[in-house]
């Protein structure tokens, strides 16, 4: 079956570029996932060390500081602007489209 719109060299080039960008984004996502997984693991190990026994106050203070740092790392990884940028703009776009459509329908039907 022949397509009504033939592919051009530019179409293939654009697809290759989009595929490469997707691959880079996936690699970045995989790296963030591994960082978050490692931080969870370190936090669990540190909490286990704290609850296991009697530690000197200096060691206990150091471990609690390490947990705070790991939790900050986890929060930064999970709630960065890069992670929220695309969903934010999609929500804004569709909410805006819904408002415009609503105003149009209201004006059209005179409700």
Automatic annotation (TrEMBL):
Q: Which UniProt keywords apply?
A: Coiled coil, Membrane, Transmembrane, Transmembrane helix
Protein name per its UniProtKB record: DUF2203 domain-containing protein
Give TM regions.
88-109
Q: Which residues form a coiled coil?
A: 19-80
Organism (species): Leptothoe spongobia TAU-MAC 1115
């Amino acid at each position: 079956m022949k397509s009504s719109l033939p592919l051009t060299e530019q179409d293939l080039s654009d697809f290759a570029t989009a595929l490469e960008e997707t691959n880079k984004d996936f690699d970045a996502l995989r790296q963030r996932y591994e960082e978050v997984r490692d931080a969870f693991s370190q936090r669990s190990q540190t909490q286990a060390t704290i609850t296991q026994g009697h530690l000197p106050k200096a060691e206990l203070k150091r471990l609690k500081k390490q947990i705070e740092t790991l939790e900050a790392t986890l929060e930064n990884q999970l709630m960065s602007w890069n992670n929220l940028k695309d969903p934010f703009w999609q929500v804004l776009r569709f909410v805006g489209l819904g408002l415009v459509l609503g105003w149009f329908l209201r004006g059209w039907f005179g409700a």
